[in-house]
């Protein structure tokens, strides 16, 4: 998929130093309010599966209502509501979407946690609790940003829609997908998603996905008569070995992302590399028989510059000389990204200089997010949140100061972006 760029090209700065100083001061003055909202969010379980977000949706709607902002809920499954709020300046301009998700990953082994799972723990500059990294810290920051933008309604043109959606963790059909299908106006002209790529980086895009099923057949017989490489399991084992060796390959980096090739990155970051995970393996029927059938399911994560069709052909070519092997696609889509020169990315980096004194290093997120749904429809989308590492896990947490910085970044980016599209 080609990179997207927002309408009108790069913008000129529309937010002055004084505004940046005021927003930072406003956010700092709300520290305890933001932490309290984080506590309420953590205390509202929303693990997916099963994906029941009614309680946490109520927390978000109440928080916005307490700040004088009207909300509505939308759902296709009543257990999975999404909370929407619209701000309209009454003046021509772009439509910016501010997006977060309400559901969380499961906690894993709760006995391995050193802090309560469902209760906020504030310790050593960190806020612990399930979902704080992914992504209740971002929810609190974005609710704060919406409030600040509402209070400054006279300072920006266009429209803003806040969309706190359900069913993102499993990339399901009951959240953002449902909203875009039933309310196409929610595409907008740009999207900021609270999904963090980790390590204080700005995600311009995310890897594609390709799921393949590899099947092997072999000659039947008693195990005592087996020949080397003739059983389905032996053939599949060779196939698995070969596809595992494909991990680390790169495609031809698109022109607007070439600067990323020079970044040192962080250890373990495979955003620009192909990875192949053999997720499941099954074969044979009995230990004393030669296996006549075996299957492996592969999860390939595709970097920009390596389309799904090319990756599938690479697997087919790699396995083509193994007898009895067949490859079938389960599902897949290409990597997606937004140009670092787009108006939205330019506005973000200006805000970053105000908030932290330097722009954020760009990144390609490893897992998928709802932002891809907008990029695939040609809308520029950025991902940034207070998730500290690649993914949440045991002792899920966010840095308290980073949650506050996110609130300021969301606010200032929105102001800058909308100023640059005045009259459009």
From TrEMBL:
One Pfam family, short name: Peptidase_M20
Matches recorded under Gene3D superfamilies: 3.30.70.360, Zn peptidases
Molecular function GO labels: hydrolase activity; metal ion binding
Residue intervals of the Peptidase M20 dimerisation domain: 205-321
SUPFAM superfamilies from the UniProt entry: Bacterial exopeptidase dimerisation domain, Zn-dependent exopeptidases
Protein origin, superkingdom: Bacteria
Keyword entries, A-Z: Hydrolase, Metal-binding
Name of protein: M20/M25/M40 family metallo-hydrolase
């Amino acid at each position: 998929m080609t990179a997207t760029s927002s309408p009108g090209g790069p913008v000129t700065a529309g937010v002055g130093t004084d505004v940046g100083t005021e927003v930072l001061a406003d956010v700092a003055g709300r520290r305890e309010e933001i932490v309290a909202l984080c506590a309420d969010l953590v205390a509202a379980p929303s693990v997916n599966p099963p994906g029941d977000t009614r309680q946490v949706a109520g927390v978000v709607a109440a928080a916005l209502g307490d700040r004088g902002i009207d909300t509505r809920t939308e759902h296709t499954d009543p257990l999975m509501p999404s909370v929407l709020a619209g701000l309209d300046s009454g003046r021509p301009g772009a439509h910016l979407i501010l997006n977060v998700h309400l559901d969380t990953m499961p906690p894993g082994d709760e006995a391995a946690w050193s802090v309560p799972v469902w209760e906020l723990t504030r310790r050593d500059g960190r806020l612990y609790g399930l979902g704080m990294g992914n992504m209740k810290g971002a929810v609190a920051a974005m609710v704060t940003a919406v409030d600040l933008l509402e209070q400054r309604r006279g300072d920006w043109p266009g429209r803003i829609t806040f969309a706190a959606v359900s069913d993102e963790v499993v990339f399901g059909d009951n959240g953002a997908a449902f909203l875009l299908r039933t309310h196409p106006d929610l595409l907008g002209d740009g999207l900021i998603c609270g999904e963090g790529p980790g390590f204080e980086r700005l995600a311009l895009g995310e890897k594609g996905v390709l799921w393949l099923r590899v099947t092997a057949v072999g000659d039947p017989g008693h195990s005592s008569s087996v020949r080397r490489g003739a059983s389905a399991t032996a053939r599949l084992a060779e196939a698995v070995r070969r596809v595992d060796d494909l991990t680390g390959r790169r495609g031809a980096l698109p022109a607007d992302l070439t600067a990323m090739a020079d970044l040192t990155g962080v250890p373990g970051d495979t955003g620009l590399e192909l990875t192949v995970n053999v997720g499941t393996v099954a074969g044979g029927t009995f230990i004393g028989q030669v296996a006549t059938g075996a299957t492996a399911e592969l999860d390939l994560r595709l970097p920009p510059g390596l389309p799904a069709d090319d990756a599938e052909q690479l697997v087919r070519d790699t396995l083509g000389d193994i007898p009895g092997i067949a490859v079938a696609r389960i599902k897949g889509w290409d990597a997606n990204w937004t140009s670092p020169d787009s108006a939205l990315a330019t506005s973000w980096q200006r805000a970053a200089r105000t908030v932290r004194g330097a722009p954020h290093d760009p990144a390609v997120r490893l897992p998928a997010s709802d932002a891809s749904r907008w990029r695939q429809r040609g809308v520029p989308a950025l991902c940034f949140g207070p998730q500290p590492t690649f993914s949440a896990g045991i002792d899920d947490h966010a840095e308290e100061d980073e949650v506050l910085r996110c609130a300021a970044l969301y606010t200032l980016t929105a102001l800058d972006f909308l100023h640059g599209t005045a009259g459009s």
